[in-house]
Every structure is written in C-alpha cells, then in structure tokens.
C-alpha cells in the first residue's frame, strides 16, 4: 500500500481529462464548413499514426464525410492502430491520470459502497462483479481487496468488458495470480480467463452482451466518456449532423463539415421534450449500453455505478483530445491522442428509466459522494499510518479527488437499482447519494 501511496506524489502534476479543458465553446458549436460531395483536398501530413490517418482519409474520399462517432470509434478502437489497443496510455508516460490511479481511497470507498448496497439487497449469491473499461485494472484490484477483506461468504466471479488486448493483459497482471488467452475458435463468450490469488475466476469479454446472465454489481469508471458521440446542430427546425471530412489544401489532416442532407442519426434523433440547445453531442452507443444495463438489472437484479465527468444535458461541445497531459486537437494525428466527450447524465438517467424498470440515484458530485462515504476518516487513518514525508502526498491525492476546483464537482456518480426497490430506497436513502 505504501508503494502505491508513494506513487501518488509523482503523479500530482498530471492532468486528468476534464481539467485542462479550455473554453472550447461550451455554448458554441465547432467551426464547420459546408460539406462537399467529394473532396479533392491535399494529402494528409505523415505522422507516427499515419496508417490510421491514411485509412480514414481513404474511407472519406471513397464514401464521403463520416460522423464524429465513426471517427471516434475508429481512432480509439481500430484493431490495429486504435489508441487503446496496443499500449498503456495512463500515468506519467501516458496521456492522462484517472481517480483510481490517484488514490487507493477511491477504489476502497467504491468497494465499501458496493458491498453495503449488496448486503442491503439480502446478500444475493452467487454474484458477478462486472467492470466496463477497466483500464489498468486498479479499481477492480482495490474493490477486490475490499470484498476479500469483508469475507462476504458468497460466491462471485469477475467479468471485465474490455476491447483492448493490451490492457486486458495489464488488468490480469494487476489482480490475477494466473491468466491465459482463450483460443479464437473456442466459441466461448470470453477471450481471456484468469484466477485471482484467492481463487476467484475472472473473465474478459469484448462486449457487455457477452457477460453471462446473473445478479451483477457493475462498475463503469471513465468508460462512457470514451464511447462515440454524434454532433448535431439545429438548422431551422431540422437537426443536421456535423461530419468529419479530409482537410482543405493548406490545412492539416481533417476538418468538420455540416451535412447537407439528413444522416441516419440526424433523421432518427429525438431531443428531450425540454431541450433548449441548438447544438449538442448525442451518444447512440451510450444509449445502447445503458439500455442493456437497464434490461439486465431489471431481469437478473443487480446494481450499476457509473462514474465519469459529465453534465445534465446542458453542455454543447465537449469533444476533445488529450496527449501527454495536454489538450490536443482531436482532428490531428488520429490514434496518437485520447478522444473523449463529457457524459450526458440526463440521457443516461432517461434511458435507464425508460428502457427498464430502473430506479436511479444521482448524478451526485464525486467530492460529495466520497465525503459522504467517510472519505476523511479513511484519509486520516491512512495518514496516521504513513511516514511523515508521505502524509502530505496522501492528503493532496484525496484533495485532488474531492476539491470542487479539481475533480470533485466535474466528476459525477449515478447508480441504477431495480425499480422494484424504489419505495425501499426512498425510505432508506442510498449512502453517498443523500
Ligand atoms: C479512459 S479508460 C478508463 C480506465 C479505467 N476505468 C480507469 O478509470 O482508470 C477507458 C477504458 O475503456 C476501454 N474501452 C474503450 N472503449 C471501449 C469499448 N467500446 N468497449 C469496451 N471497452 C472500451 C479502454 O480500453 C479503457 O480500458
């Protein structure tokens, strides 16, 4: 633990994704130009990620400008050159740092929250601990430690939903005693399997749909912000989609253009009844995945805890890139930087409540959630056991997570419970959310 604590200090100078975001126009749309049916612009500049840039360019030249969502999906998860697929993107050498990597207190309190809500539901056994987009596996490892410490006396298995072959190995190394890759032709719903030091089985799946049915405790930390978003703009009384085209002569790589005709997404998009924005980001993939979670929780029982930076349906333009802890132009050198967009928690909540009989709590700010979970008490306990030279490091890690000026208010928590528990949860409010 001390080693982990010591590391926090050297991480303090890193950026976490939401903070270095300048005013990219929280109220204004991106600069767009009218689309051309066929673009004849200059060749893209060669760079270290030239192959992805070339593929995208060839595709756009062949079929026309593509939605931002398609660009984002390709850049992040293209099997050969996608940003997440082949390397460690976290920490000092990477592009950003996340809460579980900043302080062990984060994963511990999330673990305690999960165990306490699971107990309130009657300690169903067996259960599945599911994590969407586990990164380096640090949150899963810290939650696993809590579960082990509490000696639940229940059977459980772990299920990681991860597209990156590289990161899936890093995760297994973080919390498994042994692991192996499952042969491609096995027809199994998982592609990697491992065993933790205490004998718990862990499985890796490419999609949430592949996680077996059963009572599940689902965690998603900084997963939804990596899901593709469509950019839409209201023109007259019609929603039009902002697309990505190859750049004009003299410009670099790619540029935004406004679709002249309706696209599949702009034609099916239905804004919320009280929508006032004239440009917004809409994640069809978020809607799909939250819908799957809602159906699963309603059918099998369980809880989902979504933790991410986001807003409640008021922001307009948050699509951005991070490279080496700095903001980066998302249209430059695709594949060399992380692409992200703030999560629309209004859409998440609305989808959960309409796709299943789901009771949602939140969103609440991360700082409040951690304080209500007695974060200060855990902080003081850790500090009292630390060497004097490490005490300030531990304090500053916790401050970074909870200070409204840092990660405390931009990051939010939303929980999904089976709707049948609504009356009970209203009577006995969920810790952290009230
Ligand atoms: C920003 S990282 C967050 C990592 C981790 N939860 C943390 O907070 O440190 C996003 C994670 O989601 C994974 N990911 C991104 N898109 C995905 C998708 N469509 N399906 C499954 N995993 C995905 C990435 O490989 C990575 O593990």
Tertiary shape: globular
DSSP helix count?
14
Query: How many individual domains?
Result: 1
Q: How much strand content do the residues show?
A: 15-25%
CATH C-level: Alpha Beta
CATH architecture type: 3-Layer(aba) Sandwich
What percent of residues adopt helix (DSSP H or I)?
Answer: 25-40%
What ligands does this structure carry?
S-adenosylmethionine
From the helix content, strand content and strand pairing, which structural class follows? alpha/beta
- Average pLDDT: 88
Low-confidence stretches: 1-30, 33-48
Termini distance? 30 Å
Account of the 3D structure:
Helices cover 35% and strands 22% of the residues. The chain is α/β, with parallel strands linked by helices and 434 residues long. The chain has one domain: Rossmann fold. The strands form three sheets. Strands 3, 4, 5, 6, 7, 8, 13, 17, 18 and 19 form a ten-stranded mixed beta sheet that branches. Strands 1, 2, 9, 10, 11 and 12 form a six-stranded mixed beta sheet that branches. Strand 10 (238-246) and strand 11 form a beta hairpin. The structure holds S-adenosylmethionine. S-adenosylmethionine (SAM) is lined by residues 76-77, 84, 98, 100-101, 133-135, 139, 161-164, 167, 221-223, 226.
């Amino acid at each position: 633990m001390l080693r982990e604590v010591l590391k926090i200090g050297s991480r303090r100078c890193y950026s976490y994704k939401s903070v270095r975001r300048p005013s990219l126009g929280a109220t204004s749309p991106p600069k767009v130009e009218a689309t051309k049916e066929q673009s004849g612009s200059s060749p893209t500049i060669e760079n270290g990620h030239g192959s992805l840039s070339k593929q995208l360019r060839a595709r756009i030249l062949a079929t026309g400008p593509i939605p931002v969502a398609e660009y984002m999906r390709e850049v992040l998860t293209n099997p050969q050159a996608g940003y997440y697929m082949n390397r460690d993107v976290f920490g000092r050498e990477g592009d950003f740092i996340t809460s579980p990597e900043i302080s062990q207190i984060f994963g511990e309190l999330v673990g305690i929250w999960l165990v306490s809500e699971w107990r309130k539901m009657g300690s169903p056994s067996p259960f599945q601990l599911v994590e969407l987009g586990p990164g380096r596996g640090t949150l899963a490892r810290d939650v696993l430690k809590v579960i082990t410490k509490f000696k639940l006396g229940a059977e459980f298995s772990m299920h990681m939903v991860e597209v990156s072959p590289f990161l899936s190995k890093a995760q297994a190394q973080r919390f498994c005693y042994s692991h192996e890759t499952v042969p491609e032709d096995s027809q199994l719903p998982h592609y990697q399997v491992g065993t933790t030091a205490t004998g718990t089985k862990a499985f890796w799946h490419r999609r949430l749909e592949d996680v077996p049915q059963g009572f599940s405790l689902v965690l998603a930390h900084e997963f939804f912000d990596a899901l593709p978003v469509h950019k839409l703009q209201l023109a007259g009384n019609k929603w039009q989609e902002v697309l990505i085209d190859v750049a004009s002569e003299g410009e670099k790589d790619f540029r935004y253009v406004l679709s002249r005709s309706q696209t599949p997404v702009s034609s099916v998009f239905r804004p919320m009844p009280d929508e006032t924005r004239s440009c917004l980001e809409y994640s069809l993939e978020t809607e799909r995945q939250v819908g799957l979670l809602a159906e699963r929780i309603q059918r099998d029982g369980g809880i989902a805890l979504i933790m991410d930076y986001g807003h409640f349906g008021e922001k307009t333009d948050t699509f951005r890139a991070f490279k080496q802890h700095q903001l980066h132009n998302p249209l430059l050198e695709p594949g060399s930087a992380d692409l992200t967009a703030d999560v629309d928690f209004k859409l998440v909540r609305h989808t959960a409540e309409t796709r299943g009989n789901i009771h949602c709590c939140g969103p609440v700010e991360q700082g409040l959630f951690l304080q209500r979970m007695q974060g200060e008490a855990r902080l003081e306990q850790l500090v009292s056991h630390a060497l004097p030279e490490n005490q300030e490091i531990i304090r500053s890690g916790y401050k970074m997570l909870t200070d409204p000026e840092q990660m405390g208010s931009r990051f939010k928590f939303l929980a999904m419970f089976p709707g049948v528990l609504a009356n009970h949860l209203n009577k006995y409010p969920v810790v952290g959310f009230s």
